Give the backbone structure.
Amino acid sequence: MKKNLKTIAINIILKAGKALTKEYKEFKRSGAKLKSQREIVTKADLLSEKIIINQIGKNFPDHQILSEEAGRVNNNSDYLWVIDPLDGTTNFSMHNPLWSISIALVYKGKIILGLVYAPLLDELYLTEKNQGAKLFSPPKSKTRKKLKVSRVTKGKILNTFCHGSSIKATKRAIKYYTKQKTTGFDCRQLGSAALELAYVASGRIESIVIPGANAWDVAAGVLLVREAGGRVTDFFGREWNLNNKNIVASNGKVHKSILNVLKKI
C-alpha cells in the first residue's frame, strides 16, 4: 500500500476526532434527533462525516465512498471508503467516552486498510492487510503496540454484543445476551461496535456478536481482528464479507462455542 494513502487516512481520522472532541465537551443531549425509533443522529455525526468525506474527495476524487449518514457516493473506481463518522452516538450523547470513528478502505471487495480512533481514550487502532494490527496511544506517538487476540478459552470469557436497529436484530441480541449472561462469565454491550472489535483484536475481550450489522459499523474492526489472529464469520461459521448482516468476531478459540449458542437461539 502506498505510504501516502495510509498517512492521509490517519490525518483525516485525527482531524475528525479533534472536531468531535470539541463537540463532545459542549454537547447537550437535547440537541440529538431521532432518525428511527432506536437511533439518534447529532450535528456531531454530520460534522465528522463532512470532514471525512471532504478530505477523501480532495485527496482521492475518483474513489467511492459509503458512509452511515450520507449513503453511497458511486464513482468508477475499485476503491471504496467505508465510514462511520461517529460510532457510539448514544454514548457520545450522554458523555460516555466509549465512542469512536471508523474508516476502512476496500479494494475490489477486500478490506485492505482499517482505522478505529477513540479520541477520549487517546487510542488509534491501525491495520493493513497482511501487515498485522497496531495500537498507537497517543495517536501521534512513534511507540506502537502490536495487537494479538487473547488466549482465553474458558472461565473468565468476556463476550460483548451489539445489534442493528430492526426489531428482529434487537430480539436476537437480547436472546444471545440472556444465554451468555446466565450461563457464561459475562456478556456486555459497550455501545460502539467498532471499538468492541478493536478490543477483540487487542485481547481485552474474547468476542463480539452483532445481528443486523452495517458495513460502516464493522469494516475496519473486521480487518483489525483478522490481522490480530482472530476469526470473523457470519452466524453459520462462513467467512464474513461486506454483504453479511450478522457477524461473530472472536479470538478464534471461543468461536465454535459462540456459534453453538447462536444455533440454540
In short: The chain has two domains: 3-146, 158-264. The CA atoms of residues 111 and 179 lie 32 Å apart.
